[in-house]
Amino acid sequence: MTEKNVVTAIHDTLHEQMAADERLLVLGEDVGARGGVFRVTQGFLEEFGEQRVIDTPLAEGAIVGLAVGMALHGLLPVAEIEFADFIHPAFDQMVSEVARMRYRTNGDFGLPMVIRAPWGGGVHGALYHSQSIEAFYGHVPGLKVVVPSTPYDAAGMLRSAIADPDPVLFLEHKRTYRLISGEVPDEAFTVPIGPADVKREGSDLTAIAYGLMLHHCLEAAQRLEQEHGVSVEVVDVRTINPLDKETILASVRKTGKAIVVYEDNRTYGAGAEIVATIAEEAMFDLDGPLVRIGGPDVPAMGFASNLEHAFMPDADLVLDRMLELARF
Amino acid sequence: MLPGAMLDSTAEERDVATRVTRRPTHEALGLMADDLLSMYRAMVTARLVDEASFRLNRQGKAAFVVPVSGHEGCQVGTAWALERGRDVWLPYYRDVAVVLVAGMTPYDIFLGLFAKADDPSSGGRQMPSHWGSRRLGIISHSSPIASQMPHASGIAYAAKYRGEDSVVGCWFGEGATSEGIWHEALNFAGIHKVPAIFVCENNHYAISVAQGKQMAVENVADRAPGYGMPGVVVDGNDVLGCYAAMKEAVERARAGEGPTLIEAKTYRFFPHTSDDDDRSYRSREEVEEAKHNDPIHKFEHYLRDAGVMGKGEVEHIAAEIKADVDRQIDEAWNAPDPDPDSLLRHLYAEDETS
Question: Are A65 and B156 an interchain contact pair (Cβ–Cβ within 8 Å)?
């Protein structure tokens, strides 16, 4: 076991995978000499060489499209989109090509590839370095979309993503990179893509979240326990698509109350799908209204600290709404 | 330098692509009489597949047809320089003749036209002419134009990385060259000198939009120096000229000298698809004029002049191929439809889900 933060866990795991399999290569903007703007590929260029650590031209559509070609020809590309906000030029490649290659060929072709993208706010990233993109791609059949939020899950799920025969959009919340640390086994364990995880057991209500919001929920749950004696179960979604409905529903059926917290714009966000799932399949198990906390429906957070703060749900807000729901 | 070809030294200053002006002979290209007849048969097969497909469309048996007629010369000529089982093919939807050269049969093509279960490209999922076959090295493509371009560069990068001597052929129309991803793909290919050959089948119309509204230059290939690769303009109705240009590009690619952009000037005889009406954007006179440069007729003249084909053989070969195509149409028509229960399959890998 080693204590490390999220970004170190991702760096170390990617390094281990690169060292183990020559079919693996990384490509993206600034991944080479700079080692990635978040330093995920720091030292890779020196160790693995420029054939395997490709500083691409500044063209996100090409980064994804090139990775498609590499995956079609025996390689295991791990493409980095520098900020998730910049993935939009690659939308056609993601939706029309990456997601559909297997389906449109009736299973003849597959794309074993990973697209990594740092997402989320809380880093003074303003409108174009803070966005949540999981709902855009969670909506697309054929893409697996994962949102690990702890060093353990990031390491375990990155191994699973690289081993997966299908494309995985691997979303890393920027604020968690250096904020969240934890124990990570030194051996090569995996965390499967798909299953959600109960990060904290409880009995009075269920909080469902991912990314930075997961940690706000965990903090709020701890304070509620200490200050109000309310027992909150916290479910970490971990995979946006395919969504683990069973784990979510099992927890909600146990506690009878659910609060879903996400940082994306509230309308049509991933939380909307989770709430709809609970409403459809567990309505008669509910003892209170479904509560949904999301970002406001403005393009993204502002650069000014108070604008950013006003956009992002925080632990205080989550605690208030949890308490309200617990007392319903 | 192309065998048997010369550069046009009088090209205007702004024309930066190589222009092939002298017709190569097959001997200079290393082609035997049998090769020529095989090339000719591929061209005629494509033409007859086209004519049959439109007939089936008008009969209500084929919902959608993408014609090839007019492009047979540039398609067979360029595709002929690649090797089955060794090289990789990224055709676009008009490339009936490319996929025939790559190893698809008319039966395969009609399975796709009728959206049958055994359609090798997609099992009846995609529209016809959206080619793909892992077995044949034909890379599946979608409908959005130029989306296959970065795949070609990525595959070529992988081929180079893996130390193969395979090359990648990528075909597209001149309309595709307006897409940003087209530029992105060639830019990367040039930087890394990957073994890819980019073939533009320039028929001067992107559906209805004439070339003059698509680009401010006369030749797509003039852009090649911007990507650090040679550009070649060739008469797309001259199958041997196309073969010569492609052969040299393939040799360069195999030798590690990087990609080439080839532009074959040609013409599409039919509307864009069976759902298009080209009378709204092209005069009948223009279309009839273009047919004087029919690549099949031009090749027939060459074959007769070279003594490879006798006078009565044109009709004989056409009748033989037509009978064969008709038989394969019947077989494909009678093949099973996809199972509706298969709709949800192959979203992810089966038997090895994570």
Answer: no
Place of tokens 């899950």: A153
In B204-353, where do the E strands start and end? 205-206, 209-210, 231-235, 260-265
Name the burial class of residue B163, with classes exposed (0-12), middle (13-18) and buried (19+) by CB atoms within 10 angstroms of its CB: exposed
Nearest CA in chain B to A63: B150
List, run by run, the mean pLDDT of 10-residue segments along chain A (328 residues): 97 98 98 97 98 98 98 98 98 98 98 98 96 98 98 98 98 98 97 98 98 98 98 98 98 98 97 98 97 96 96 97 97
Structural domain boundaries enclosing B61 = 29-335
Q: For residue A171, what are the β-bridge partners? A: A117
Q: Does B352 contact A73 at a Cβ distance shorter than 8 Å? A: no
The reply to whether A190 falls in a domain is no
Full domain range(s) for residue A156? 2-184
CATH number at residue B129: 3.40.50.970
A59 to A64, B118, B142, B192: CA distances (angstroms): 9, 37, 20, 15
Here the ipTM equals: 0.97
Closest-approach residue (CA) in chain A for B344:
A103
pTM as predicted: 0.96
Confidence label for B6 from pLDDT (cuts 50, 70 and 90):
very low
